[in-house]
Amino acid sequence: MPRLEERAQKFADSEVGSRLEENATLKSEEGVFAEARDRLDHCDTVIADADFAAIERLTVEIPGIAGSSREDLLKPVTEALDKAAADLLAALDSIDSALTTARQTTDTAAATWNEAVKPDRESTNEVFRTLIEEGHRPDEYLATKARLDTLTKRAEHKKTLSKKQEKPTHRAQRSPQGACRQ
């Protein structure tokens, strides 16, 4: 147990527990950027899979309009389809622009975040490197602490039991006269 206590104390002195928590927080925060990029990539895929041929088909001339005696009554249909195609293409351009802006903003935020956490990350990595060079394994911190806690509790429990055995109990002090008869 002394060796385990020594390792646990070394970990405690290096604040490895808080450093591990900080690393977990950093990984979680990094996940925010990864999730944002995944969502943007998904939207890009959906847009790339858009059926541009269907939009172009809207602008293809509909037979029966040109040369009809009521062409002026039918022409609004062609104009509506042309406008729909133009509006859809503009919407796709707008979506593409929105995705590009979101990607740039996400990348800028990630770069700013990386710069802000760089000192913490370097400090934590230095602590881990030092511990490893000294023969300790920071990834074992939680297991070491749990084992030490278990052994400490067992030792305390044994002390308590040995103290109870040293104290005379009330039954041992009773005289046989007070014992129950069968």
Written overview of the protein:
This protein has helices at residues 2-13, 16-48, 52-58, 71-133, 141-166, 170-173. Helix content is 80%, strand content 0%. It is mainly alpha-helical and 182 residues long. The longest helix is centred in the middle third of the chain and has 63 residues, at 71-133. It has one domain. It contains six helices and no strands. α1 (2-13) packs across α5 (141-166). The protein is rod-shaped.
Number of helices: 6
Helix content: over 70%
Give the strand tally: 0
Q: What portion of the residues fall into strands of 2 or more residues?
A: under 5%
| Poorly predicted spans | 178-182
What integer is the average pLDDT?
A: 82
- If you compute it from the alpha carbons, what radius of gyration comes out, rounded to the nearest whole angstrom? 38 Å
Number of domains: 1
Secondary-structure element string: HHHHHH
Category from helices, strands and their pairing:
mainly alpha
* Largest beta-sheet details: none
User: End-to-end distance, in Å?
Assistant: 50 Å
**General shape:** rod-shaped
Region (Disordered): 152-182
